[in-house]
Amino acid sequence: MFIWDQQPIVNIDSLCSLRAHIHHGTIAAIHHTFVLQAIAKYANIKRLKLLKKNSVKLSIVLIQWISDWIFCFPAYLTGDMPKIPTENICFIALKNIDLLCYMTSLTFLIPGITVSILYRRLVSYAREAPSRVHVNLQQ
Predict the structure, then answer these.
(1) Rounded Cα distance, 87 and 85, in Å
(2) How many angstroms separate the Cα of 64 from the Cα of each of 4, 6, 13, 101, 135?
(3) What does the pLDDT look like over 15-71, one tens digit per residue?
């Protein structure tokens, strides 16, 4: 590593916080899209009529996108996405633990737990399927 890589970058970038907001919103959209895909697979396998209409699918996707861009507005509006002095990026201030936990839980934890629950229910449904068929044949 070169010595000048550790020097603080002094130029002021007024759009750095906006780029951080776009970055966090995009990462959240990606993770929440995994949840939407899991819901679609769950509804398809369980033969639920929840997502049969394209208008319902489109409205769910639009609501998800809008909420992903809105949920990180508090950090953007309060200026808690400062530029890291030794890097050329903006990120959530690590000194604000409450905001960091809020963003982490909404971006990573809640979607991950939701996907895990949905796929676990699908696996248990698939394991029970042969016994349901066997009971129906005996009746």
Answers:
(1) 6
(2) 43, 39, 30, 20, 40
(3) 888 888 898 899 999 999 999 999 999 998 888 888 888 999 899 999 999 998 888
Query: pTM score, two decimals?
Result: 0.76
Tokens of 59: 């409205």
Residues 6 or more apart in contact with residue 41 via CB below 8 angstroms: 118, 122
Based on the number of CB atoms within 10 Å of its own CB, is 97 exposed (0-12), middle (13-18) or buried (19 or more)?
A: exposed
Residue-wise pLDDT for 57-110, tens only, equals: 899 999 999 998 888 888 888 888 888 777 778 888 788 888 889 889 989 999
Residues 6+ away with beta carbon under 8 Å from 88: 9
Widest Cα–Cα separation across the chain: 79
Where do the domains of the chain lie?
12-129
Provide CB contacts within 8 A for 50, sequence distance 6+. 39, 43, 56
- For the chain, state the CA radius of gyration: 22
Lookup result for tokens 């609501």: 63
